[in-house]
Amino acid sequence: MENKDIYILGVSAFYHDSAAALIKNGQIVSAVQEERFSRVKNDCSFPIEAIKWILSDSHLGLSDIDHVVFYEKPFVKFERILATCIHFAPKGFGLFKKQVPTWLKEKIFQRKTIQNHFQDNFPESGWNKKLFFSEHHLSHCAAAFYPSPFEDAAILTIDGVGERVTTTVSIGRKGKIERLAELNFPHSFGLLYSAVTAFLGFKVNSGEYKVMGLAPYGSPIYSEKIKETLVDIRSDGSFRLRMKNFRFATEMRMFGSEFEKIFCTSAREPESNIEQIHMDIAASVQQVSDELFLMLVSYVKKLTKQSSLCLGGGVALNCASTGKVLESKIFDKVWVQPSAGDAGSALGAALAYYHIGLGRPRAVLKNYMPFLGPEFTLDQILADLDSCKAGYQVLSPDQVVQRAAQALADGKVLAWMQGRAEFSPRALGHRSILADPRVKDLKKTLNLKIKFRESFRPFAPAVLEEDASNWFDLPSPSPLMNFICKTRPEVRDVVPSVVHVDGTARVQTVSEEFNPDFYKLILKFKSLTNCPVLVNTSLNVRGEPMVLTPADAYRCFMNTRIDCLVIGNVYLEK
Amino acid sequence: MVDKKEENDDLSFLRKKSIAMCCGFSVLSGISYFNNGFAWPIFTAAAVIIIMLGIFYPSKLSNFFYYIQKLHKKIGVVAFFVVFVFVITPMSWVLRALRLDDMTSNPSESPITYWETENIKDPNDIDFTKQF
Ligand SMILES: [Fe+2]
Fold first, then answer.
1. pLDDT, position B3
2. Peptide bond preceding A479 in cis form (omega within 30 of 0)
3. Of all residues in chain A, what percent carry a pLDDT higher than 90?
4. A307-351 confidence digits (pLDDT tens)
5. Is the terminal CB of chain A with fewer CB neighbours within 10 Å at N or C?
6. Please, what are the domains in chain A?
7. pLDDT confidence of A364, banded at 50, 70, 90?
8. Which residue of chain A is at minimal alpha-carbon distance from B131?
9. Which residues of chain B neighbour A69 with C-beta distances below 8 Å?
10. CA atoms within 13 A of residue A485's CA, in its CB half-sphere
């Protein structure tokens, strides 16, 4: 019998962070977020450009795809919206009049909408129209478990809300996932964190990082009040929100006027001054998050008796809390899907369908790195730069590393674009802005003159894996930048730019095996400066997605005060 | 070239709308006539005017349809309000009275866990072909 390859395309769309991912016989081939192409941050539109790239990258047509899998079940989501309207009536007309018509007009026909997108964009494709639907948290579980290095593991997923579920505890064994416990809407820690994010004047679904970055500047003086008035947490980590203080279930906003009484201040206007009270509120919700994570993880351990833990869902991107989980040693090993939000669910949906829907066995991955997006050949890079009328030098690989490391050692800020783009909200050395962490006022310069973002936002260190333990208190390597840990006291003054106000850092460990180009650069920098650490932040400016193409990188380079740009072996200097 | 195409698309959209509206008025006219109503000549005249404008001067209808659309939105909100007040709200009371509403909005007084472990859908039994 002929052994035909099975291609599965996973798709997430229509809420936020739409993305597409391709697997071939269960092996992850490529994945990318639509925002990288459309240049619209957190783009939620159907990921057609992402799909087009994925197919062309693998030299496939749509007719070669055996199964297309959507990341959630639309009818269950609609049922939850109706159930919410019914439950909270006579309150909730605001939500009803906004959500229900949109669903009745468009969203309820998602199968047709998706099919139309494919047919309109690939009219000659001969697509088999096999469209499948995973379940939202199963997609999160699958994205967290299948790419992990564990044969068996406990899985904890936490997000805002999927169809109805907000938190799940499962066990992954070989190719199967068994769910043991769950919490349902409206009781969602993701939505509580988002409500506080909105109260602090940041955007829901993208400003949560800012709250996390702001937290170390404050004191958690409101954490007890949050537990008394906003969320009731039981000793086993299960919780319920006190819904009378929230509005997301009845209106098109997150919090009620009660928040102002609880925090004794009015909601912060976006872009207005950040005061001590805002930092204290951020610190308080972050402390509740840390406590909740530890309680949840203890419960997961008790329930599953596993030694390894996989974390998924958007809340798992809270690396301060995941850092506490790692530090607690409740589980021997912890792995967090780097694209833990809904974008990663495109990959999760495809993997869930392959292993559960088709019942195919799973081969454990030794080390998943999310370098799954587009890369560019020298010809493509030069063509892009020529079209921008850029001046550049083409160097040998060794020369480019030498020049870049020297520039960094001279205190210059360098944009570094190598290989395939990250399928992750974090730059891991393929689309990064790099700098010397020993420079004192670098944090301010980078934030205000290059990233054009709030001055309190911290920067992450990338460190050679073999040197990591001398600089950071990290129990195990962290190649995916998923955990915040303490910086060793003796080096805090050496690398001030990557140490947050509370002495912590969100570390990326870089090894030769899994990130060779970036490793060579840091190694060279170390040979010049004796410092194996670089500042690593994503190559973008505020409000924009990470750059994708050489032309994007060049535009970012020219519109900011970045000193040098390296794309592959091409070197540009201002 | 693109502008020309867009203009043609707009005109064909307006023509389609005028046909739809003409059909609507014709139906109303028919209903009125068979119910011995007095308004059928008005509906018939409206249908004829709309279709004539749609065929010969579709661009003259763009403002008219804009206001119709606005009115339509307002009517939509009123219709949804009626549904919310007369269907959703009573349904909510009935379900609550019969204890059939399984959604919770407040913490419980009893010292129980909030974890739901019963009746969980096994991911291995999920039907991927279904949207529910
Ligand atoms: Fe989610």
1. 62
2. no
3. 83
4. 999 999 999 999 999 999 999 999 999 999 999 999 999 999 999
5. N
6. 189-336 (3.30.420.40), 378-573 (3.90.870.20)
7. very high
8. A73
9. 128
10. 25
Nearest CA to A145 among A371, A311, A317, A356? A311
Of A93, A112, A232, which to mutate for an interface test with B (greatest number of B Cβ within 10 Å)? A93
Supply the DSSP symbol for A399: H
Helices (H), A148-252: 189-199, 208-214, 223-229
CA-to-CA distance for A433 and A544, rounded, in angstroms? 14
Whole-model pTM: value is 0.89
* Distance, CA of A303 to CA of B17 (rounded, Å): 61
Q: Does A242 touch chain B (CB under 8 A)?
A: yes
* Residues constituting chain A: 574
- Report the run of H or E that residue A171 belongs to, with start and end: strand A165-173
3-state SS class at B59: helix
CA of A411 to the centre of ligand 1 (A): 40
Of A177, A181, A249, the CB nearest to B117: A181
* Alpha-carbon dihedral A116, A117, A121, A124, rounded to 10 degrees: -40
> Using alpha carbons only, how large is chain A's radius of gyration in Å?
23
Contacts of A104-113 with CB under 8 Å at 24 or more apart are: A107/A14, A107/A74, A107/A78, A108/A74, A108/A75, A108/A78, A110/A14, A110/A70, A110/A74, A110/B131, A111/A74, A111/B131, A113/A46
CB A13 within 8 A of CB A111: no
- Does the beta-carbon distance from A236 to B131 stay under 8 Å? no
Nearest CA in chain B to A236: B113
- Residue A4 burial class via C-beta count within 10 angstroms: exposed 0-12, middle 13-18, buried 19 and up: exposed
Q: Where are the alpha helices (DSSP H) in A305-417?
A: 319-328, 344-352, 378-387, 397-409
Q: Please state, in angstroms and rounded to a whole number, the distance separating the CA atoms of residues A268 and A412.
A: 36
User: SS3 letters for A89-134?
Assistant: CCCCHHHHHHHHHHHHHCHHHHHHHHHHHHHHHCCCCCCCCCEEEC
Q: Is the peptide bond before A220 cis (omega within 30 degrees of 0)?
A: no
Q: Taking a C-beta distance cutoff of 8 angstroms, is the pair A562, A433 a contact?
A: yes
Low-confidence ranges of chain B (pLDDT < 70): 1-6, 111
Q: What is the ipTM of this complex?
A: 0.86
Q: Is A523 on the interface with B (CB under 8 A)?
A: no
H helices present in A388-515, as ranges: 397-409, 442-445, 468-471
Does the beta-carbon distance from B105 to A135 stay under 8 Å? no
